């Protein structure tokens, strides 16, 4: 499904001073510390989903709002009308571009629902579950970021087998990330704008089922 950001989204940090040289583990610790101080988020994003099984590559754009610990609202501008809403109890996946006439409703604790918080996953997975290496610095837009590669250790059931994250050298915000699952499907997300601890709309975290739309429970 081209729109499934499961993003939850998304993220990360307040300003802290960054040393010139920093190990991969130190970079992760900075990002975790910054994320712990964030209560709400507003962001816009561009996502590219590449599926080697079908040979497809699809790009989508949209905006998200998040209130920790369990509320998320993603509104896609392309494809327009698609939405993902976590209201604290359920996660509603409304993708009319892929499955018209229905909305998927999942309990917040379901595995699929957990994947809606991609950034949170990178920062909450136990460090013992993956190997991490630093791959230098790169520009993400106008910002400089430290690049980290995370590889799931054998036998670990993680939502990714490989992930790559770009952590801003100045404020520890994750500006971009890419994850690959066990089927080889790669999701690349670039945050175009990011406002931590911004004012969010309470109404955004409520999903009202449109008339004529069937609710499918999972």
Helix content: 10-25%
CATH class: Mainly Beta
Low-confidence stretches: 1-20
Number of domains: 1
Just name the CATH architecture: Clam
Report the biggest beta sheet as strand number plus sense, adding barrel if it closes: 12 strands, mixed
**Could you state the CATH homologous superfamily?**
Lipoprotein localisation LolA/LolB/LppX
Mean of the pLDDT scores? Answer: 87
- CATH fold type: outer membrane lipoprotein receptor (LolB), chain A
Task: Tell me, briefly, the overall form.
Answer: globular
Structural class: mainly beta
Give an overview in words:
This protein is mainly β and 218 residues long. It has one domain: Lipoprotein localisation LolA/LolB/LppX (outer membrane lipoprotein receptor (LolB), chain A, Clam), CATH 2.50.20. 11% of the residues lie in helices and 46% in strands. It contains 3 helices and 12 strands. A 12-stranded mixed β-sheet has the order 7-8-9-10-11-1-2-3-4-5-6-12, covered by helices on one side. The two termini are 16 Å apart. The N terminus is likely disordered.
């Amino acid at each position: 499904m081209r729109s499934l950001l499961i993003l939850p989204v998304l993220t990360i940090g307040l300003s802290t001073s960054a040393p010139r040289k920093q190990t991969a583990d130190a970079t992760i610790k900075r990002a975790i510390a910054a994320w712990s101080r964030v209560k709400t988020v507003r962001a816009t994003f561009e996502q590219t989903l590449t599926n080697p099984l079908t040979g497809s590559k699809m790009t989508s754009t949209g905006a998200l709002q998040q209130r920790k610990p369990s509320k998320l609202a993603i509104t896609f501008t392309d494809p327009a009308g698609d939405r993902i809403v976590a209201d604290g109890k359920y996660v509603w996946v409304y993708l009319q571009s892929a499955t018209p006439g229905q909305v998927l409703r999942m309990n917040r604790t379901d595995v699929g629902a957990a994947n809606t918080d991609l950034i949170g996953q990178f920062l909450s997975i136990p460090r013992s579950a993956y190997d991490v290496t630093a791959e230098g610095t790169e520009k993400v837009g106008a910002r400089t970021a430290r690049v980290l590669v995370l590889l799931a250790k054998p036998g670990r059931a993680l939502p990714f087998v490989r992930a790559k994250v770009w952590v801003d050298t100045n404020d520890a915000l994750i500006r971009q990330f890419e994850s690959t699952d066990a089927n080889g499907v790669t999701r690349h997300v670039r945050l175009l704008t990011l406002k931590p601890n911004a004012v969010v709309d309470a109404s955004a975290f409520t999903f009202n089922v449109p008339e004529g739309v069937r609710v499918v429970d999972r």
